[in-house]
Input
Amino acid sequence: MLEKQIVIDQIEVLESNYIQVRQATKIMEDGKEIGKTYHRHVLSPGDSLEGQDEKVQRIARVIWTPEVVAAYKTMLAAQRP
Output
């Protein structure tokens, strides 16, 4: 029997406080993995966490303090002409 499994298999916090998330989609046949693809996305401090994996949400709540989010917004504003 074929089965498709989607898992968050890697969460990285970068020095800049971005959170990089890797999702693996595994194709299983009779309990054995026969294929795998990856999708990555990056979250910036203050981004909406709606729809994100619970682990990602917990990490973001710890890392993205109000001071971190404010510093990120200040950095973005300084880059605008």
User: Anything to note?
Assistant: The CA atoms of residues 37 and 71 lie 35 Å apart. Helices lie at 54-63, 66-79. The longest helix spans residues 66-79. The chain has a mean pLDDT of 96.
